[in-house]
Amino acid sequence: MVGRQFVALVIRVRFSMPAPLKREYEMKIIFLDIDGVLNTLMVDTEPFSSSRGQILRDKFYYKLNMPNDLEVSNRQAVMWLNKLCIETNAKIVITSTWRMGVDGLENTKKALYNSGLIKDIEIIDATPILQEPKDMNIRGHEIQMWLNEHQNIDNYVILDDDVDMLENQLNHLVQVNTYYGFGFPDYEKAIKIFEG
Question: What do you get for the CA distance between the two ends of the chain, in Å?
Fold first, then answer.
C-alpha cells in the first residue's frame, strides 16, 4: 500500500509541476544600421520636400539623407522595421555611425521617429564605439561588447548592409541590399532568426 501511495504522489508532483518560466526581463534585440538599411538613395522626377542633400541631374532628383536631416529616406523600410518590432516585441540598439558625435543617439532616435517609426517601439541604446579596431570586423566587436554587458538577451538580429561581424554572429545577420534597403525578404529572414 505504501508503494502505491508513493507512486501516486510522484506522478501527481511530476505532472503538476509548472513548466520553467521564461524570465520576464529577457529581451529580443535588433542591432540596427541606418545607411543602406533605412536610408537609401532615392530618386524622383519631382523635388523632395527637404532640399538638403538633393542633387538634380538629367531631370531626376537624387537624395540621400544625412544624420542632421533628422529623417531617413526610405520610409517603406521603416514600415517593415515597424512590423518586425511589433510582431516580435523587439527593442532597437543602434550600431550605425549615425550614433557618433554630439547628440548622435538622440538625433538618430528623432530621425527614425520622424520617418515613421512607431513611438511605442523602444530604441534603448547604442553599441559602444571602438577607437582601435581589433580587426576588420569592427561592428561585430562593438555588438559583442554590448552583448557582454547585457546578459538578459533572449535572441538578437543584426540588420546591416555590410558583413563586418564576428563569425559567431553571422547566423544572426540579415544582410540588407544597400540599394533597396530593408524589405519583405529581409523581414522574413529576421522573423526566422527570432523564431530559431
Answer: 48
